[in-house]
Amino acid sequence: MSLFIGRQHELERLRGLPSHKANLVVLRGRRRIGKSRLAAEFAKDKIFLSFSGVAPNEETTVQDQLDEFARQFYAHFKLPPLTFKDWNDAFANLTEQLTTKPTVILLDEISWMGNKDSLFIGKLKNWWDLYLQKYSNLTLILCGSVSTWIEKNIINSTALFGRISLFLFLEDLSIKESYEFLCHLRFKGSHHDVFKILSVTGGVPWYLEQISPDLFADENIRNLCFLKEGILTHEFDRIFSDLFDVRGSIYKKIVQALSDGSKTLSELRTVLGYKQGGVLGHYMKDLCTAGFVNSDSLWSFRHKKKGKQSLYRLSDNYLRFYLKYIEPNLGNIDKNTFMNQKLSDLPGWDSIIGFQVENLILKNRATLIQKIGIPFQDIVADNPYIQKQTKQHRGCQIDYLVQTKTNNLIVCEFKFRRGEINSNVVDDVKEKIKRLSIPRGFGVASVLVHIGDVSESVIESQYFYRILDLSDWL
User: Fold this and answer.
1) 17 CB contacts (<8 Å, ≥6 apart)?
2) For the chain, how long is the longest CA-to-CA vector?
3) Count of helix runs (H) and strand runs (E) in the chain
4) pLDDT: is 381 or 305 the higher one?
5) Quick one: 66 and 204 in the same domain?
6) Confidence band (pLDDT; 50, 70, 90) for 194?
7) Domains in the chain: how many in total?
């Protein structure tokens, strides 16, 4: 079984389910995030019956999914090969094999199992109501990467209303957990190398498993992303074909538009050529539900209210890296141009990694807030902040901005570089704050979040309220 790190909160929720009754659990998360691995960990002291749908294509039929289920069925129970005529038949045969012992049934990639059968959810509901609920100590986990299908057909389905005991959505491992993962792999790189790797992989466990412990960060990234046989070189296409099927190309255009920076819905409509209407809004909701895009609310400092507009930001580290650096180089990758190339010599390499680390920090904002020392209950709003230029004030962009209930603004500047961070960073942050339109009576404090050396002049200036070294997060 693969390495298991973190997920303690999710395990506690699962272990806290009532043991005197059957429980129905919905488990969601992006591809490769470790959903089935979590289910296996929860079930390691129980009977574990895991079934997975097969990735569909245009020719896949309901019977193909049933045949795959049957193959896994007789592998579990060491029975002769058999054929199920429909899902009622499959579920009935599985029920006959159940015992009174603690049991976990995992239906993995359930959208693949059920997307070609319009009656699948109804049959699942009847199986639960008529049979599974009679078994105490049984947990049925419905799991999948296609969060949009699960939301429509399971979470918002009237068929399963009131029957689900627990909803779980798996996000990336935290920075600290990801580092622990790399340590278990015996990765020997520096803290700077650790953040380089995480800037590309995020906290996605399966991506971290591909790291070779005997190579440094740049060599690992080259082998995974810049060789034509690299595991992450073509992962992007697999994500969108598996998750969004025939609409994959539509969602790909949207994330490509976001790869150049955050945009409002109106700005996305302009870039993509969509007319005013609801269809693009639905697509954005799908991408947010899938965990690839974040909706960062704009807000009014004075009124402490969220504005009507939100900024959509591509939040998945791998997708960002692929679109900004892998895809533009696919032609050279196919020619093996990068076989002996030092990635650090590539134009803009440090800047790209810096932007990637910024996104990594934002995905770990709970740790950042804790390190700054702000009680969570005191926060009015927190997000990357963009102030558009108008006739009244100039534009500015804040890496991360926090407003507290006591009218304090915490301006956070992220720096990731190999060289020493000098006093220019103080001037840069002062200029941003000068441009920021701040109501009278508000306080402003600045925070520097960095990896790498900070010059004595920056420290002696005492300008920053906090100077946080990312190495301490490990």
Assistant:
1) 23, 25, 139, 165, 166
2) 78
3) 21, 12
4) 381
5) no
6) very high
7) 3
CA distances from 272 to 269, 284, 294, 470 (A): 5, 13, 18, 37
Q: Do 319 and 219 sit in the same domain of this protein?
A: yes
pLDDT mean over 232-259? 84
Asked whether residue 379 falls in the same domain as residue 298, the answer is no
Using the 8-state DSSP alphabet, how is residue 178 labeled?
H
- Angle, vertex CA 314, rays to CA 334 and CA 265, nearest 5: 125
Please give the model's pTM, rounded to 2 decimal places: 0.92
* Contact (CB, 8 A) for 428 and 435: no
Which of 129, 144, 170 represents a domain boundary (last residue)? 170
Q: What angle do CA 347, 348, 349 make, to 5 degrees?
A: 95
Start-to-end C-alpha separation, the chain:
25
Assign 26 a pLDDT band (cuts: 50, 70, 90).
Answer: very high
**In the prediction, which pLDDT does 372 show?**
96
Residue type, 170: L
DSSP-derived pairing of the beta strands 47-52 and 103-108: parallel
- Residue 147 is classified by DSSP as H
Same domain, 108 and 21: yes
**339 or 142, which is more confident:** 142
* CATH code for the domain in which residue 434 is found: 3.40.1350.10
Mean pLDDT to the nearest integer, 388-417: 92
* Range of the structural domain that residue 152 is part of: 8-170
Confidence at residue 345, expressed as pLDDT on a 0 to 100 scale: 82
Q: Are residues 58 and 131 in the same domain?
A: yes
How do 305-314 and 293-300 pair as beta strands? antiparallel
346 and 391 part of one domain: no
Do 463 and 334 belong together in one domain? no
Average pLDDT over residues 139-155: 89
Tell me what pLDDT residue 308 has.
74
Considering 346, 363, 380, which residue would you say is the last residue of a domain? Answer: 363
Provide the mean pLDDT of the chain.
Answer: 92
